[in-house]
Amino acid sequence: MDKSDVSLHLRSYDDEGKKHSHGHHQLVLPLLGKLSLSVNNTEGAVEWNRAAVIPSGSNHGYSAEEENRFLVVDLPEALAPALERLPFFVELDSALLHYVRFLHTQLVNGMGSSHTEHQMLLLLIQLLQERHGDTLNLDRRVAAAKQYIDDNFRKKLTATELATVAHLSIRQLNELFRTQIGMTPHHYLTELRMQESWRLLKQSDFTIQRIADSVGYSSLSSFSERFSQHFGKSPSHFRRKS
Fold it and tell me: To the nearest 10°, the Cα dihedral for 85, 87, 89, 91?
């Protein structure tokens, strides 16, 4: 698997219970039925509100005794290094379940470009890391910068400001952040803003201008351009679909 490849599949499992491992991370997300899994001798299940995180190189086996269907995400280690520090089985809250259903709909109807799929799956990874971030044991300087972004992403933030918070140079922070989070602080900030704007488009009646303002974009055109680059479709497209 290429270090930049990420892919989404619709998959069903049988009751053979095969054990294997592979050189990339894998997420198994529930749509229908139950899948029993063993990941490095930890037993669990993927079902309606629970997903599995299978780190690269982990031995895992599966079995299913009823009709089932799951979304499976394959992604390289370099793209999401923090995933290997998440629990093997994670609970999905209502927002994550909503996003899983949205991904399923997009996959069935056609994602569009590979860039769109890539960005949507990066957002999924970010959502999971945000929900279960207390297990990541980040370097305190990276954690300080991440927390500052989490608390202030609705405002204008500069690289110098973030480096000051972390007590690092901009280059050092970028390198550490990328190693532990899987992306630069700027990329993380953008992901967070896109996550919130997508949520507001789907779950609120705010105007698109108000949404742009609420996620740190003073210019509606700049927000719309960034959103369209990120998801492959305009904010108004998602507003019509919600």
Answer: -110
- For the entire predicted model, the pTM comes to 0.63
Q: In this predicted structure, what is the pLDDT of residue 119?
A: 72
Hey, what CATH class is 7-111 in? mainly beta
| Domain 138-241, CATH among 3.20.20.140, 1.10.1060.10, 1.10.10.60, 3.40.50.620 | 1.10.10.60
Q: What is the mean pLDDT of each run of 10 residues along the chain (242 residues)?
A: 70 78 90 92 92 91 89 83 81 85 82 68 78 70 92 93 96 90 85 84 88 92 89 79 58
Residue ranges covered by each domain of the chain:
7-111, 138-241
State the Cα–Cα distance between residues 91 and 75, nearest whole angstrom: 20
Cα 230 from Cα 216, distance rounded (Å): 16
Contact 181, 82 (CB under 8 A): yes
What one-character DSSP code corresponds to residue 20?
E
Question: What sign for the dihedral angle of Cα 48, 230, 149, 133?
Answer: positive
Q: What b/e readout covers 116-129, taking b as 16+ CB neighbours within 10 angstroms?
A: bbbbbbbbbbbbbb
54's enclosing H/E stretch is strand 50-54
